[in-house]
């Protein structure tokens, strides 16, 4: 029986949750959750100068927005430093590593000379096979003994087999002379101790993998399944950067994209399931596999994100949309909805969520129920409220004093009224839109009347008729 899948996301807390990091987290989450496994979170906070609690909080908020909940406690790499150092000393005791007394100046001088002479700058320490009796009483680093011959093969589920000549591998430092462990050791020890079975990460880490495998092999630990995913590029094919637009996941929340649309889009960014573009979370969990990840960099396309977001808004549950829009307003630092506005928005959701690609677009369509009397028409709407149309509204209002406030009854009243006026309903729609919403472009007049209710509709019509 195979062991359960355990994946991890391991960001450095030096800034927001980058779109690339968000996709990496999503891929790990989908792979683990889709197989009944565990998805763990480790904060790689060993760089004390750049790691901040604020950045950690920003990463957690981004993951929370995307719905990527992790299992268990968050692991701090910095707090595990004593364990990392113990592993380095264990390798030293077992002859898999050695003490290196070479100074930074000696190493730098060697590399400078080698470069000038056109030789390899790969440093080979003279202390690798030195007699311990010759060791000076001085600070030392602990270096692993890299294999000197043959090849190391990285069996990668995305990149295929990647072969590296062992003559390209140096005796990597595990523990610096000040006793602090290096990142390359910390990653391996943490992944092993956390029981990580699959390492799914950006392909910028691929070059580190052969060196990390040395630690696994020296310790006799199981090597995880590797899956190095291509980076995300901008539309111009260059590495995604600020010039391409927003980079942080939460920036997209503040721009009004729904989390489900973002998950769908990020999943499709470098992974595919046939020709399927739009899919639900349940389908993504069922379909996602490492075999569907391409080798080429994915290109970020805002139009595709908008398109998918619109589709997810259209099929979302109204109550869930209301909650997410309230969270969007907070993220965008916009005024919160009052309870009455939020209730009205939820009532209106059925007629405003179609064809809205973002929450600002949806709220623009819902303005009629979010605003309050007196309704001040904009310039376009005001053109529909001339003397003739105001007179029509005055005549119409008494006919709407009906107990039957449903679509069929309202359509019947308005169509009969238009006929009696010797016009078509279309001519009546403009003044009604202006009176009910103050806008020229709105949901259907009937939908607005149903959402607003009889009392509010009549009050707005009376206001407009009075001019």
Automatic annotation (TrEMBL):
This is Glutamate--tRNA ligase. Monomer. Signal peptide: none annotated. One of its GO terms (molecular function) is glutamate-tRNA ligase activity. Keywords: Aminoacyl-tRNA synthetase, ATP-binding, Cytoplasm, Ligase, Nucleotide-binding, Protein biosynthesis. One of its GO terms (biological process) is glutamyl-tRNA aminoacylation. It catalyses: tRNA(Glu) + L-glutamate + ATP = L-glutamyl-tRNA(Glu) + AMP + diphosphate. Belongs to the class-I aminoacyl-tRNA synthetase family. Glutamate--tRNA ligase type 1 subfamily. It is found in: Cytoplasm. HAMAP family: Glu_tRNA_synth_type1. A motif ('KMSKS' region) lies at residues 239-243. Residues 334-464 form the Aminoacyl-tRNA synthetase class I anticodon-binding domain.
